[in-house]
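Could you join me in thinking about how sequence relates to backbone shape in a protein? Would you write everything just below, so we can both look at the same thing?
***
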Amino acid sequence: MAETEHAVERAEDGVDGDLPAWVPGAFDLAGELAANPRLRQEDLDELATWARKQHALPAMQEGDFVKFLHSCEYDVLAAQQCINYYYRTRSTTPSVFCDRDVRLPSVRAQLNVLDFVVVPRLAPDGCRIIINGLTDPDPRNYVFEDHQKLLLMMMDAMVAAEPTLPGVYIIYDLDMGLISHFWKFGFWLQRKLFAYFQGGLPLLLKSCILLHTPSYINTVMKVLRNFTDRKRLDETKMFEGDDFAELHKLLPRECLPSDYGGTLPSRKELHEMTWRRLDSLRDSFAEEEEALKKK
């Protein structure tokens, strides 16, 4: 989709690659309707009529419905259920969905503990790649709630600009991860967020990839089976060590930062690019939060 003639304007900075500009309202709905036979105006109209009758929902723009339809395989009823789950989770999980401002000290602190990257080069199958990894090995500096807050801010910004992506690869680099990081997750919140990822996040997950998997990974996976889709866990791809030859069979070097034998800039440079983009959306995140508070 990103290479079609109706794609939104690209950012000029070279490190941004093929990422569209993260600007509210920039998604070309008319172009997508013309190019995507599965996206129908009558389905958008039906969702808009339904949403206006739902007192728990904030005001939604026509383009907002595209990501829900696409992630639900263009099933209107499934999209309605996804929208309800999406907003219900956000209104009842303030530790993750409130104060979404990268300049707040608590949020900024996690930007110094982890890298958050949206890779500026689509995979050959048209999917986008997200990378998340620790840069500070001290578990005392890691805060699970703020980690998830930033991760979901990044996903929200990405899917708003590219709502009909065929899928997303999520890479977690566990190189500096200790089992004490895992015990800081908070199991109630972890369970709630896993349910949100499965039922409310308007995004098609192509694959979850774990790099530098530690010796305790089997223990972690056994615990996670209590919270999430076992089939999805079984499909998780895991790679050990610093030999990325097997990873390159899944994702070519042209789609990866130099840290993983790729041809793109370093993970740190791409993290700074992603942070800059999130910072530009501060007003948009604040407006969304205010709209939810009024409901």
Summary: The chain is about 45% helix and 10% strand. The CA atoms of residues 125 and 166 lie 8 Å apart.
